[in-house]
Amino acid sequence: MSRPIPLTDPLSVAWIQWCRNAGIPPNTIARRISVLRYMPTAGVASREDVEAWWRARAHLSPATRHNELANLRSFYRWTRRWEYRDDDPTLRLDNPSVDPGLPRPMTREDLHTVLNSMTNAPDRRAVFLGAYAGLRISEVARLDWADVDLENRELRIMNSKGNKSRRVPISPMLLDALLPNTGGNVVSGVTAHDTNWLARRIRKAFRRAGINATFHQLRHRYATIAYEATGDILTVSRLLGHANVKTTQIYVRTREDVAQAIAMAVTA
Length: 268
Description:
Layout: H1 10-21, H2 26-37, H3 47-56, H4 62-81, H5 108-117, H6 121-133, H7 137-142, E1 148-149, E2 154-157, E3 166-169, H8 172-178, H9 195-208, H10 216-230, H11 233-240, H12 245-251, H13 256-266
Antiparallel strand pairs: 1-2, 2-3
Helix pairs in contact: 1-2, 6-10, 10-11, 11-12
């Protein structure tokens, strides 16, 4: 099916409501809804139906197909768990191979250009949280002062991606950039931002500064600097909130001091 249709399949609707009740992040739920709209009979689909849907998605990029299949499989795990179905029609589908690529951290020069060009305080606080705490845009959008431990200088990131929570230390510089404590949302000072709205604002701010980058590249910057400074991928993975250290390997690059030592050694 080339165009999505409204979500009417009873099991699909029930799953999405279950996701909301379970506190699944809104962006994840939006992706799941999108997948199910292209698979409108997922609740009663046969293995042949699902495999036909998969063939119809062959024109999409491997990364998109990988994400769609992961979400559809999550749906069928739920149907089996709650005994709505006793089969998994995705069983014979193979995950497409996805090249993780290389990290593209924002450079120090570009970061300072962006910050120096920003006159909007909420936008500046959002960028600081991405660059100096490694937060996702969704985490930035809903961070409240109630989740800032001023005594221990830590951020409590609650129920983020994968329903995981973590603590992230904050430097005095970052804390200064976030203050004053309004008692509300850290970025807006009042209520939580909509993630997509905030992401669009930051993209526009980057363009106005003449920087071609995304908010996620701030997180890349945090991850690469943290790893290069310590070589401790497990701690970096924990601070980023990754469920698997293999995910962290996408964000970090070889420590430059080690790489330079290798370059010198092989030419000796």
